[in-house]
Design goal:
18 strands, about 425 residues, single chain, alpha+beta, 5-stranded mixed beta barrel, BirA Bifunctional Protein, domain 2, RNA-binding
Length: about 425
RNA sequence: UCCUCGGUAGCUCAAUUGGUAGAGCGGGUGGCUGUUAACCACUAGGUCGUAGGUUCGAGUCCUACCCGAGGAGCCA
């Protein structure tokens, strides 16, 4: 079974015989000719079955093949302008591996709910296939960026004893009689690890139990979180922009075909190059107010606010120094204005909003303890975290990027749920 | 949790002021030697989300509930 030909490399077999193994994507028939569109995960190719070229049994078989039947086909490979991919196979033999039942997803239009109910089959469609290929490339680029820059991969736990930030709603689970929660971030663990390895990152699933029902939210999503010892906010922003530039440019190189199939305007990605604009929260507020929108000083940005700010630029914009009051307890205060936090959000262009949140962490033990009290968080849950400030505390910073939001932006999608193979949302846990 | 919209054939949708539930795709049967979401003919396929109510008569009007989609909040 190993020495077979993949459709993706069919051009190497021009004017030669080849055997492909795949699934029937669609079929058109014309009396004494059948046109089978066959896919195998690496590509799709037209197979021509002519009545005169095959035995009668084979020809009759192809006449009534259900969509998605699995097939092994041997034939002569030719270049032909009439074939959608430029190449086609003139069949000599067609072996039916399995006759499919009536396939629910037809070549016509369907609603998203129906397609999501059939997500396990929808993955076979060309658009979904392309999105997940892009996702794979983005994840590989993320890992390569950190691996090539001497970061150490440190896996964070999924079960956690208490809220990391105390803000989001967590999924609660029974842990041998006591309560445990599914992680909403690996960050606190990365801070501890950075004091051992210097530069670390984690990449894993993250869970939020908020009842968000929008095209930007999942209850289970993947986040990549670097953390760097001896790093301040400016250094953090340097890393974030270099990182985003790298993954976008890598994806443009590796996934031209897929982005074309997704009809992505790649000119809007080609401009994603350093330096990215860096503006303060106060400057962002001015942009929002100048646009005519009402905004109350000191508030966090809503999604419309983010869109208005990001529309001013042709590449991601980094907004730093938000009011400390709207940010998590571990953010370090700005020495120049303690009402502000040394944090940064990276807003993707074209209305895609926040893809990265991060900043410099509070490294002073006493300040951190009082922040925990201010936020009404249980001190005992953070004893280990406070230890990081007791034994050789240093300035450190990091950020987290939601993979699905990055994929959604880079692919130019309307819904985040198509960026993950099996999405989990407030109303979906199957398939 | 709140706001808006929706639920009719396997799928996508239509049905006029309340008056015999329809089309395309998919399925089935037949036809066609260059099809491009092929095409042509015929054919099968329905508890109109659920439960009540108004009416001679309800897919259509009223009430409650269930489910879904988008948005707000919250966030990546």
């Amino acid at each position: 079974m190993r020495n077979k030909t993949y459709i993706g490399e069919i051009s190497n077999y021009k004017d030669k015989d080849a055997t492909i193994s795949g699934w029937l994507y669609n079929m058109r028939s014309s009396g004494k000719l059948h046109f089978l569109m066959v896919r195998d995960g690496t590509g799709i190719i037209q197979v021509v079955v002519a009545k005169n070229d095959v035995d009668e049994k084979t020809f009759e078989l192809c006449k009534e093949l259900p969509q998605e039947s699995s097939l092994k086909i041997t034939g002569f490979v030719v270049e032909d302008k009439r074939a959608p991919s430029g190449y086609e196979i003139q069949a000599k033999n067609v072996e039916l591996v399995h006759r499919a039942d009536e396939y629910p997803i037809t070549p016509k239009e369907h609603g998203t709910t129906f397609l999501m109910d059939n997500r396990h089959l929808w993955l076979r469609s060309s658009k979904q296939h392309a999105i997940l290929k892009v996702r794979h490339s983005i994840i590989r680029a993320c890992r390569d960026y950190f691996d090539n820059n001497n970061y150490t991969l440190i896996d964070a736990p999924i079960f956690t004893p208490a809220a990391c930030e105390g803000t989001s709603t967590l999924f609660e689970t029974d842990y041998f009689g006591s309560k445990a929660y599914l992680t909403q971030s690996g960050q606190l663990y990365m801070e501890a690890a950075a004091m051992s390895f210097g530069k670390v990152y984690c990449f894993g699933p993250t869970f939020r139990a908020e009842k968000s029902k929008t095209r930007r939210h999942l209850t289970e999503f993947w986040m990549i979180e670097p953390e760097i010892a001896y790093c301040d906010l400016d250094g953090d922003m340097d890393i974030a922009e270099e990182f985003i530039e790298y993954i976008v440019q890598r994806t443009l190189e590796e996934r031209k075909e897929e982005l074309k199939l997704l009809q992505r305007d790649t000119s809007k990605l080609e401009t994603v190059q350093r330096p990215f604009p860096r503006i303060s929260y106060d400057e962002a507020v001015k942009i929002i107010k100048d646009s005519g929108l009402e905004f109350e000083d000191g508030n966090d940005f809503g999604s419309l606010d983010e869109t208005i700010v990001s529309e001013q630029f042709d590449r991601p914009v980094m907004v730093h120094r938000y009011p400390a009051a709207v940010k998590a307890f571990y953010m370090k205060g700005d020495p120049g204005d303690l009402s502000k936090a040394l944090c940064v959000d990276v807003l993707a262009p074209e209305g895609y909003g926040e893809i990265i949140g991060g900043g410099q962490r509070e490294d002073d033990l006493n300040i951190l303890e009082s922040k925990i009290k201010e936020h009404d968080l249980p001190m005992e849950a953070f004893d280990w975290y406070l230890d990081v400030r007791k034994y050789g505390s240093v300035p450190h910073a990091g950020f987290g990027m939601g993979i699905e939001r990055a994929v959604s932006w880079i692919c130019g999608l309307k819904h985040i749920r198509e960026t993950i193979p099996f999405p989990r949302t407030i109303s979906r846990i199957k398939p």
